[in-house]
Amino acid sequence: MESGKVPNDVLNKIVLSKINKFREEIILRPGIGEDCAAIDFGEYACVLSTDPITAAVNDIGKLSVHISCNDIASSGVEPLGLMVTILCPVGTSEAELENVMEQICVTAAELNVEIVGGHTEVTPAVNQIIISTTCIGKSQKNKIVSSTGAKPGDSIIMTKSAGMEGAAIIATDFAHKLNNIISHEDLCYAREFVKSLSVVKEGVLSGKFGATSMHDITEGGVLGAVWEISEASGVGVVINKDNISVDPVTKSICNALDINVLRLISSGSMLITCPNGEELVKILESNNIKATIIGTVTANKNEKLLISKKEGTVQEIEPPSSDELYKLYVTANHEHSL
């Protein structure tokens, strides 16, 4: 298998198919495109999500907080607690561990999320620091938004712009590949995207508005998230490629490295489906969150189309495969081995 998330067909066959479902307290279970689990605690539900950081070297403390908190936000829920596991390779210095922990604590505090536990270990099983976080939220049971609720006729909204996380990681970890192509100012600008990777605000606002489904755009990029929403909800999607926002600097970075920005990890952007999409866009923008309607949900579950009038193209949206970011790590590992 390639680097990145296990392909969805393999995930279904080997992982999801083996999970037994027998506790009545579990009200939101694992599935393709589903970011969270939820457990019934009477009037309220405990909402949980867990994720590792593996495709970055720098800023991993910040990223580890955002990815799990964003998953909780995709259920329309405000995150409140975070459990953190840090695995350090042998030889890690105290200063390196302290830097990571400082990033985690500062980022969590900015989101009003408390660190409630975890585990820290030095082990020869890893060759770089690996962080896995589990985020916890609380919600009234009837207020939880899942990835399975998109309805035909819903608008498909994307917040912010595609590829921000990927561009930030590339500008930080692979600047040497871009020094003679992208200006120093633009690289610094792209690194600043790491400050805009939270989707907690739009997740909570959209949940209150009545979003039918949400999915934060992580590995696999915009098209991967669209495909997963479609599969999870059993609906079709028609996406207008011309409406997908991409920052010019992100576009320049991706063009320079032959990366498909629509398949690039994009934390900081949320995919939202809802009726009355124009009204939600107004609400989000009144809260200083850029939002764009990029498509429509259809009744034909086999219809997954990417249309561009500018390019005169109609393409089938394929299932997500290895994220575009991993191309750079594969190349880097190959160069290192030579």
From TrEMBL:
Q: Which residue intervals define the domain PurM-like C-terminal in the entry?
A: 151-305
Domain PurM-like N-terminal per the UniProt entry, residue ranges: 33-138
Q: Which Gene3D superfamilies match?
A: PurM-like C-terminal domain (3.90.650.10), PurM-like, N-terminal domain (3.30.1330.10)
* UniProt-listed GO biological process terms: protein maturation
Known InterPro entries for this protein?
HypE (IPR011854), PurM-like_C_dom (IPR010918), PurM-like_C_sf (IPR036676), PurM-like_N (IPR016188), PurM-like_N_sf (IPR036921)
What family does the Swiss-Prot or TrEMBL record give for this protein? Belongs to the HypE family.
Name of this chain's protein: AIR synthase family protein
Which species expresses this protein natively? Ruminiclostridium herbifermentans
